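Look at a sample.

——
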Amino acid sequence: MAPVLCSSTSSEIRIGEVEDIQELRRARPTAVPERYVRDTNERPALSTILPSLHVPVIDLSKLVWGTKRQGQEEMAKLTAACEEWGFFQVINHGIEKELLETMERVAKEFFMLPLEEKEKYPMAPGTIQGYGHAFVFSEDQKLDWCNMLALGVEPAFIRKPHLWPTNPANLSYTLEKYSKSIRRLCQILLIFISRSLGLSPNYFNEMFGEAVQAVRMNYYPPCSRPDLVLGLSPHSDGSALTVLQQDTASVGLQILKDNAWVPVHPIADALVINIGDTIEVLTNGRYRSVEHRAITNKETDRLSVVTFYAPSYDVELGPVPELVNDQQPCRYRRFNHGEYSRHYVTNKLQGKKTLEFAKIQTSY
């Protein structure tokens, strides 16, 4: 959708039209516009937060090249991270530090461009590619304090070349190189996730076919009242795996664990991995997708680059037969992945509500 700069005193925004947050910030409104102010029970300052807990860290080099003992220890950590957290940070992942830094730099350069330049790549209402604000479906919906650029990467037919920015000049080239590295990382992680479940190493990679990959760059400007807004609403991801590169300027990502929000503290050169709805269905709920959200900061901005990796749209999904038994009965119906993807992108971000689409039982 094309972002539209509205008066800071007006809350009248038609569906599909949202203020550009950076321009709104520059206007220095005396108060946060009402459409961004969360209901009391959703405000981050009033939620239970547990800063003392830390998301597990997995050393990929020990899984790939370590000794037998190192591999076993790291595999146990990976299994526990998937079962108990749904999130982990991966270090020694093999992606060059220079490439990570370049990706972060060109993404931020794009967001720093004048509004008229960014508006050349508009996210049309009801779509999720381009520059704008996704998942907006009603006039009274609370909005996220975030600008985003989202692009389909693989397979080729999901790309929309006219939405790939030519400014900065090296953004497209960098994104191509970056996405190939992230794709390989996802394939490697899926090998070890398959093994952790007692499946053949290439079980998921072979099942996924020509995997779907998309990237979303999120920019969170400073907010004068971070206690009233959210950078990104609580949700789980519809992907199989999500790979997040977050800058180290501030803590913004939080995950829901044991009914409390846990901040994910950035680690230099690490990437954050989370289990998506697709893996939850395939593992019959053994590895569950987890709600997460982003908060804002009063003084500093924040940037993240998020890659979503999922099976081909024509793949039929359902619990892996080997993971269904009398003790673990089938919890999800079978469905086409493309069908679920359409369902996901046509509903607003609202916790794990979209996954009810697939459940045979509403709770367990």
About this structure: Residues 238 and 277 are 5 Å apart (CA to CA).
